[in-house]
Write a structure and sequence with these properties.
globular; 13 helices; mainly alpha
């Protein structure tokens, strides 16, 4: 491949990542709007159910349904259970706080993945990367400090739990990629979340209002768009180039908050997010472990 072709392909990957982040941000805004009318676990179930057709139909069209056969059932089940906890606490946090505030804490997930990969998978993390991870965690504590105009404590705790589950699901995905097709990893996750979250929310299930069906379809569409373009991004450009673009979600979150809910981040959220993003960028760009960049399969959890 010539240098000009390589640059053009990298540029396509970068553009694809920007589109993916925007799509996921709009999807999360829809989930936030749902959270005011429906319980968090029901919203989690609906999000998974809305995404399943967009996984199955392309595979059926391409004659790739055989890729859906899972091998390590126990890990698929574990990852699905983590997904239920991840999405339930994420939607709960979105209900209680602004998108930008929740995103600010959630941006520490890649740092958690890097730390977990070092301990659980034996991946190498250098001293400077550990320092950056520590700085990122300090940033999370800054965001979580109690303030009347800051992130509510319950929302902060919910986001931290969600980020921990997200990181654990990412590590599980890294193990599953050794024996499974991506399609099986993604679909099994969605099926377990859809079934599990539905069963857990039966006692509080709220009938879906007629005006929300279109928005629910948009959740599936934006998730599918995000998944398609994030896959394109990691296919066409190096992970170290496109992974840091995920931090633009903070800008999308702040913009959507301002336009839709007339909300702006508190000063401590902005300060803490600066530390988290700086640490995440350092680990992603200069780290010696691939764990710093969230695995593609883990990102598809939100698709």
């Amino acid at each position: 491949m010539s240098l000009s072709n390589a640059r053009a392909r990298t540029a396509r990957g970068v553009l694809a990542m920007f589109i993916a982040v925007a799509a996921f941000s709009f999807m999360d805004a829809l989930l936030k709007s749902f959270s005011t009318h429906y319980p968090p676990l029901q919203v989690s179930a609906l999000r998974a159910l809305a995404s399943i057709p967009f996984i199955l139909l392309p595979l059926w069209w391409q004659g790739r349904l055989r890729e859906l056969q899972p091998v390590r059932w126990e890990l698929h089940l574990l990852r699905g259970v983590l997904g239920i906890a991840m999405l339930g606490t994420f939607v709960f946090a979105l209900r209680e706080a602004s998108l930008a505030s929740v995103y600010s804490v959630y941006m520490g997930a890649p740092l958690l993945i890097a730390a977990m990969a070092a301990f659980l998978l034996g991946e190498r993390v250098g001293v400077r990367q550990w320092i950056a991870i520590g700085i990122g965690f300090i940033g999370v504590l800054v965001i979580l400090q109690p303030r009347s105009d800051g992130l509510p404590l319950v929302a902060g705790l919910g986001t931290v739990i969600s980020a921990l589950c997200y990181a654990a699901a990412a590590i599980t995905a890294r193990v599953l990629t050794r024996s499974e097709h991506s399609a099986a990893i993604v679909l099994s996750f969605l099926v377990v979340v859809a079934v599990g979250a539905t069963l857990l929310s039966l006692g509080s299930w709220t009938p879906i209002q007629a005006e929300d069906w279109l928005a629910l379809a948009c959740v599936g569409v934006t998730g599918a768009i995000g998944q398609h373009y994030i896959t394109t991004a990691f296919r066409d450009a190096p992970a170290a180039t496109v992974a840091p673009i995920e931090y633009t979600a903070l800008l999308w979150g702040a913009g959507i908050d301002w336009v839709v809910w007339q909300a702006t981040p508190a000063s401590n959220v902005f300060a803490g997010a600066t530390l988290v993003v700086a640490a995440g960028l350092y680990v992603a760009l200069y780290g010696q472990t691939g764990a710093a960049s969230t695995p593609d399969q883990a990102r598809e959890d939100r698709a």
